[in-house]
Automatic annotation (TrEMBL):
Predominant location: membrane
Organism: Pseudoduganella lutea
Cellular localization per UniProt: Cell membrane
Protein name as it appears in the record: Branched-chain amino acid ABC transporter permease
GO BP, sorted A to Z: L-valine transmembrane transport
């Protein structure tokens, strides 16, 4: 299959991608509203908040950066924090690269910019095989573009809503609610739960570190803990299977 065939727009595949991602769009939009409100209540002006949501397009990194911005933390601390939180996109890139390696770099760059966690997961669920296939790019666009639009529309609504609602209404708590909304669905395994618990303990113990470095330390230690627990669990299960086979023999 040529590059032109792979990139040729396939309306049926685009609609299929849209229908696949449709159930998630309301949640993405609602999350965007919460983050938009949180940006305003963290002290950003409307132009600054609009610039952040249009250029960054990474809800977790935006939420993590907001308290650092509010605390006047150094730019490098904000940058490193966002970089650590977005490391998962390196994994997404590795997974998607074999599917679209033949496309021009600017098209891959554009698709990468509008990619999101749920969209990538749904795409890989439909196309686990990286072999070229008609409609793959259109299916991915049907997932990515509505997802990006839902996020941006929700976020912009939240920005103007947060700017209009008085501070004494308590919407500053929206940032905490947004983090809870992100956190709960992700704690779906024992390694993730261990990572979250350890990160929570570290964040409390390291709360007095300057420049909000306690937050960065909690993220790093939590990620390492989850990786160690997952690795240890895999080895333990493999050893148990071997022992079980040896017993039956």
């Amino acid at each position: 299959m040529s590059n032109q065939d792979l990139a040729t727009h396939d309306p049926a595949a685009w609609r299929d991608g849209f229908r696949t991602g449709l159930p998630t769009l309301f949640g993405i939009g609602a999350w965007g509203v919460v983050v938009g409100v949180a940006m305003i209540k963290s002290g950003l002006t409307v132009p600054q908040a609009l610039g952040m949501t249009l250029l960054v397009f990474a809800g977790s990194a935006q939420l993590a950066a907001l308290p650092l911005i509010a605390a006047n933390a150094p730019v490098w601390v904000i940058f490193v924090t966002a970089l650590v939180i977005n490391l998962r996109f390196v994994i997404f890139s590795v997974l998607l690269a074999p599917h679209f390696a033949s496309l021009p770099w600017h098209k891959r760059l554009g698709l990468g910019f509008v990619s999101g966690d749920i969209s990538v997961a749904l795409y890989l669920q439909r196309y686990p095989d990286p072999a070229p296939a008609p409609g793959k790019v259109s299916f991915l666009k049907g997932l990515l573009y509505p997802n990006c639009a839902a996020w941006q529309i929700g976020s912009i609504i939240g920005i103007f809503l947060g700017n209009a609602v008085p501070t004494d209404w308590g919407l500053g708590f929206a940032g905490t609610l947004a983090i809870v909304c992100i956190l709960v669905p992700m704690v779906a395994s024992k390694p993730a739960l261990c990572g979250v618990l350890v990160a929570a303990v570290v964040s409390v113990l390291a709360a007095d570190l300057p420049y909000k470095l306690g937050l960065l330390a909690a993220v790093v230690v939590g990620m390492v803990t989850a990786m160690i627990v997952e690795e240890t669990g895999d080895k333990w299960r493999a050893r148990r299977e071997q022992d079980s086979k040896a017993t039956h023999v």
